[in-house]
Design goal:
This protein is of the alpha+beta class and 182 residues long. It is built from eight helices and four strands; from the N terminus they run H-H-H-H-H-E-H-H-E-E-E-H. It has helices spanning 2-16, 21-30, 36-47, 52-62, 66-75, 95-100, 102-113, 158-168, and strands at 87-92, 126-131, 143-145, 148-150.
């Protein structure tokens, strides 16, 4: 009978121990057909990107080969394989913003930051991306930084936007990150 008590104590200790987030995530999505994209989306929402070690562990837990995971990660341009930076600068490239000059705004930000869209600065401060639409067409052209919208941007003054970001210092909000980022 002493053995049963010891076994019960071990089970109790395991139930009280916090579970690994990847294991919990895998359990949530494993039995749902076609759920790999959703699991990866949730993982990126928590971390801001999908690190290789976390992708490998998710694959093991879900019974999905790493090659399949990377097929998904590299096919959809939403997923990031590297940490995106402290400030994620998204320039809307939707129709209204495009007509009002967002290509020039994006080009100005590329020049100001010394990177191309889809890249991060060497210091890890900024990640620049073009997105299909931010849903604020009346404020065109616009950009958002970590979900904070900056409307009616002067297409020739990317420096002014970055200066405002330095003042505002918007915090990262995974929920505010656009799903259709390019």
């Amino acid at each position: 009978m002493a053995e049963n008590t010891a076994a019960e104590e071990v089970d109790l200790d395991l139930e009280e121990a916090p579970e690994d987030e990847i294991v919990v995530l895998a359990r949530k999505w494993k039995k749902k057909r076609g759920s790999l994209i959703m699991a990866l989306h949730e993982l990126q929402g928590r971390l801001g990107f999908v690190p290789r070690d976390q992708a490998m562990k998710l694959g093991r837990e879900m019974g999905v080969p790493l090659a399949t995971i990377y097929e998904v990660l590299t096919f959809y341009n939403y997923f990031k394989l590297e940490s995106p930076g402290k400030y994620i600068v998204s320039v809307c490239t939707g129709t209204a913003c495009h007509i009002k000059g967002s290509p020039k705004l994006l080009q100005g930000l590329e020049g100001e930051l010394g990177i191309k869209a889809g890249e991060s600065t060497a210091d890890g401060e900024y990640h620049l991306q073009g997105v299909r639409c931010l849903g604020c067409c009346g404020l065109a052209p616009l950009a958002s930084v970590n979900g904070k919208v900056y409307g009616k941007q002067d297409v020739d003054d990317a420096h002014g936007l970055l200066g405002q970001v330095a003042v505002d210092q918007p915090t990262v909000s995974a929920a505010a990150e656009p799903v259709d980022a390019e």
